[in-house]
Amino acid sequence: MRKLNKKIILVATIISCLSVIIILGSNLSSLKAEPGDSQDPLVTKSYVDEQIAKLNGGNGTGTGSNPDNGSSSSNELKIVTIKPGQQLIAKAGAEFVIRAGKAEIFSSDASGVSDLTDGKDLTKGMDAPSNHLLMFPRDGRGIVAKDTPKNSVVVTVRGGYEVQTVKE
Question: Which of 26, 78, 117, 164 is 20 to 30 A from 133, alpha carbon to alpha carbon?
């Protein structure tokens, strides 16, 4: 009876050891993975910062300031504030997102601005919706701050633009 118990314990020990070896062997392949690899999708902060810098054309630090005092043609994302009596005129291909305040669409002709969020065309005089991506296909179109007390319009801009005083 003792020999039978020893054999059972020996077989159980061998099976346990083999199971541990198989489990460890399958997990060892993940130890060889590089960060960001398909085997190890977690990445470091420095890797993410490097990728963002590449997307921004090598400059990962955008301050949002406008050293040109009212005009820009950069592809960076900028924060621009316009006040009543001012208009933000886009260059062809620029994109705006109105973050705060009330504004309306300005256009020098009958055509309008593309609201990419709703898939609509906004024409001159229409209210510009907040938090919608607006795309300006041609020069001479933009937004005008509504003439209400204390109304400052904060706009996120990508592409070229000019801040002008509204001509009456």
Answer: 164
